[in-house]
Amino acid sequence: MDLDALTADARGLRRAGRRSVLGLAGPPGAGKSTLARALAGALGDEAAYVPLDGFHLSNAQLDRLGLRSRKGSEPSFDVRGYVALLRRLTSAGDGAAATGVYVPDFDRDLDEPVAARHLVPPGAWLIVTEGNYLACDLPGWREAHALMDEVWYVDAGEEVRDARLMLRHTGHGRTREAARAWIDGNDVPNAGLVAASRARCSRVVRSGG
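RESULT FIELD:
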C-alpha cells in the first residue's frame, strides 16, 4: 500500500463547488479506519474523517431489536442517519457554516456510539468515510454509495484480518475463547456479505499481509 500514491489519487477527487466523498469499504479487520485516518491526516485541513461506526445502534436499541449478538452486522447500523449526514455534508452552502459539522464515532471501551467526537471543518473539501457496508447493494446503502465520488475496497489476507480481529476483541475485554466465538459467529458472516460488494468498488487496496 503506497500512501503517497493513494493520497495523490484522493486529492484528484476534488470537484468545483461542492465537497467530494471517498468511501472505504471492506471486511472487518481489513484496515479501513487505519487507511482513512492516514489519508485524512496526509491531506490535513483539506479532508475530514467520517466513520460509519458512529452510526452503530446503541446497546439499548440492539437489545430491543434482538441484535445484540449480531452487533456490527448490516442491520445494526442507522444507515438512514448516515445517509442524512452525507447529504448534509455534500449539500451546497453547508461548507460555509462557521462552526463546521459534528460527527459521531464509536467508543470501543464504552462499547457504545458517542456524539460529536469528530468535526468536519468548513474548509474541508474531501470527506473520507469508511465502513464495512458502503458498497452493498441493499436499501439505504445504495443511497450512501450514490453520494460517494469513489468507493475503494480495502482488503487484507484472511490470516491478517483474523489476527487483527483477535487482538481487537481481546484488547477490549473478551477472553480468547469468547473472541474466537465472536469472530466465527459474527465477523466472518459480515465479511461474506461485504465480499459480495467488492465489484461495486472502483479499486482494491491491499492492507498488509
